[in-house]
Write a structure and sequence with these properties.
The protein has 433 residues and is mostly helical. Helices cover 72% and strands 0% of the residues. The longest helix is centred in the middle third of the chain and has 35 residues.
């Protein structure tokens, strides 16, 4: 329990900074490789697949928007689940959030090395890889410990920086769309299911960008606005980028760097360089948001005696959860060095689906308790929540045991950790501090 003499977190994140943080959390490195993978699955119809996946995710986002507008404390889905289903369920979702974010961070670090290495070849050596990952993590850690306002502004700058090459492609590509190029994006057997799955994973990240509610100026008012605005903006960007790629780049499915290749078609070699720099900026921006949001889960759980108490420490000068930030950064660095992108990204995506489904379920529970809540209210909210649950469950059901075993392992380890902690503390109390 915090005393009045202890420092507390500072509310410094405004409405537009929160919106930028959500956009930054969704748009990472995936957009720079996604267009070719989707074109390989559904060809010229890939822009429609982008739109369909965005519509599906929108149902889940609406659930997050309604539930998020009820709270002004840190924790995000962890906190929502705790209040809806009790401390044990809340802990499990918090546990899943932590692992999801760590896997995602490890994937981002590996992509950072790959694209930086394309610009600076020594980075791809074992020593260069370690130095690049370590340097990147130290940078974003210091920015976040130094103050949430600094971190929020840094995320804003990186968000703008990552969007510039994408918007450049959209604007230039709109003047050079070719019917002949579009007609050449032929796929003999379109695979819509895999395309939507891939795109849903690309839309993920919004659920972690709302964790720092205790440092948002007016979370009950701004969370819904920021979520809805961000997902609409991201869907528009993804749709226009996909259209530009398949309308400008011949045989887009065969390119491993579709954004760079499309910009090279429009601008020559300088286009590839712009795209490469865009990826580096995008990943640094995502990592800054990762170091801003993820430690707040640890901080929130520690305040409720569900994690070691030192993780609830707040820096007396900067008013940031410095211990949680430092531990989070150390953990993701170790995982990044020990994994590759494909491994980390797959594990992150699978764990995220469970968080989506449970958070949609909290809408139903809260509506049963309070039929006219304050804040954002979804029309036909229960039906929207059921659609969100079904959508998430369908995606999860398509995964093989070889991919899904990690979810079982994380849940089992979480149950063991919770049981041990409950025994040692004599039971944990329900509700807010």
């Amino acid at each position: 329990m915090l005393t009045t003499a202890e420092p507390t977190l500072m509310r410094a994140i405004g409405r537009w900074s929160l919106t930028a943080g959500i956009v930054n959390g969704i748009i990472g490195s995936g957009i720079f490789g996604m267009p070719s993978a989707v074109a390989n699955l559904v060809g010229v119809w890939s822009p429609l697949a982008v739109l369909l996946a965005g519509c599906g995710v929108f149902f889940v986002v609406l659930c997050f928007a309604e539930v998020g507008s009820r709270f002004d404390d840190a924790g995000g889905p962890y906190l929502y689940t705790r209040e809806a289903f009790g401390p044990a369920a809340g802990f499990q979702i918090g546990w899943l959030q932590i692992w999801t974010r760590l896997f995602s961070g490890a994937a981002a670090l590996n992509i950072l090395v790959s694209y930086t290495g394309a610009l600076i070849p020594p980075v791809e050596t074992p020593l260069g890889r370690a130095i690049t990952m370590t340097g990147g993590i130290i940078l974003v850690t210091l920015v976040n410990i130094a103050g949430v306002r600094n971190a929020a502004w840094t995320v804003n700058v990186f968000t703008i920086g990552k969007l510039l090459p994408l918007l450049m492609l959209v604007v230039l590509g709109s003047f050079h769309l070719s019917k002949g190029v579009l007609a050449g994006q032929v796929v003999s057997s379109p695979n819509w299911t895999e395309a939507v799955l891939l795109l849903v994973f690309a839309y993920g990240g919004f659920e972690s960008a709302i964790i720092a509610a205790s440092e948002t100026q007016n979370p009950k008012r701004d969370t819904a606005f920021a979520l809805v605005t961000a997902i609409v903006a991201v869907t528009a960007v993804y749709l226009l980028v996909q259209l530009a790629v398949v309308g400008v780049l011949p045989h887009a499915a065969q390119s491993s760097t579709p954004i760079a290749a499309a910009l090279a078609e429009l601008l020559g070699p300088v286009g590839s360089t712009i795209a490469g720099l865009g990826v580096v900026v995008s990943i640094y921006g995502w990592l800054t948001g990762f170091a801003l949001m993820t430690p707040r889960i640890l901080y929130s759980m520690a305040r409720r005696s569900e994690m070691p108490a030192f993780l609830a420490s707040v820096h007396p000068r900067f008013l940031t959860p410095w211990a949680s930030i430092a531990v989070n950064s150390a953990a993701v660095l170790v995982m990044g060095l020990a994994s590759n992108f494909a491994q980390a990204a797959t594990l992150a995506a699978i764990a995220r689906l469970a968080i989506f489904a449970v958070t949609c379920g909290t809408v139903i529970v809260f509506r049963m308790r309070d039929r006219e809540p304050e804040g954002f209210h979804i029309p036909c909210g229960t039906a929207v929540a059921v659609i969100g649950i079904a959508f998430s469950a369908w995606l999860l059901s398509t995964r093989s045991f070889a991919q899904g075993w990690i979810l079982i392992a994380i849940v089992a380890s979480g149950m063991a950790f919770w049981s041990l902690k409950t025994i040692n503390t004599g039971g944990l109390t329900r509700g807010k501090l």
